[in-house]
Amino acid sequence: MDSIFILTGAGISAESGLGTFRDKDGLWTRYDLSRVATPEGFRADPALVHDFYNMRRKNCLDAAPNAAHAALARLGRDHPGEVTLVTQNVDDLHERAGSTGVIHMHGELRRALCAACGHRWPAPERMRSEDACPSCGRPATRPDIVWFGEMPYRMDEILERLARATLFVVIGSSGEVYPAAGFVDEAAAQGIPTLEINLEPSGRRGLFDRGLYGPATEVVPRWVAGLLRD
Length: 230
What we know:
This is NAD-dependent protein deacylase. Its main location: cytoplasm. Strand 4 (107-114) and strand 5 (120-122) form a beta hairpin. The chain has a six-stranded parallel sheet with strand order 3-2-1-7-8-9, with helices on both faces. Helix content is 31%, strand content 19%. By secondary structure, the protein is α/β, with parallel strands linked by helices.
C-alpha cells in the first residue's frame, strides 16, 4: 500500500498571511528569540512571552487556509493509501482546511500547557502569566509550543511512520531546523523516494530526488491532482 509522508513548514502558510521564519521583516526578526522562544526566557519574563504568543495567536485566528492546505486535505481524504501529515507549523490551518490526524511536532498556538503538571487544554485568545491551570490550579500556564532546547512532540511515532513511507515530501520548509531537517537523510538511507516542493530550491535541494518550485497555492494543488489522476 502506498504511504505518503508529508512534512510541511512555514512556507505553506505564507500565502495565508503568516510570515515564514526567515522573512526579512517578519515577526521573528523583531524579537530576541532567547527571550520569547526558550524555557529560560519564559522563566525570566512570562508576561513578555505570553504577549508574543497572544499576538501570534491573533494572527493565526485572522488567517484562512489557502489552496495548498485544501489540496492536502483532499489528498488525505481521497488517496487510497496512507497519508501522514506532519507539520512544523503551530497554526491550525491544516485542520481548518479539513485535514485530520495532523501531527504538530512543534506544538499548537491554540493549545495551552501547564508547566507544573503537564495538563493541556484549548487556549483562550489571550493568555496571561497569572492564569491558573484548570487541573492543578497553579499559575503555571504556558503556550503549548516546543521552544528551542525542547524535544519535538511524537518523535517516535513520526519516525515509525517515516520508516514505512513509499514517498517522502517536504512542502514549504527550508529543511534547516533539526530534527526535521534529518528526515530526508532517513528517507534516503531507506531508499524512499524524496520530493521537495518549495517556492524556490532550498539549500538542501541536492538531497532530494525531485523538486517542484513555485507558489504553494499553485504547485501543491497541481501535484495532488497528478497523484489522484484528475
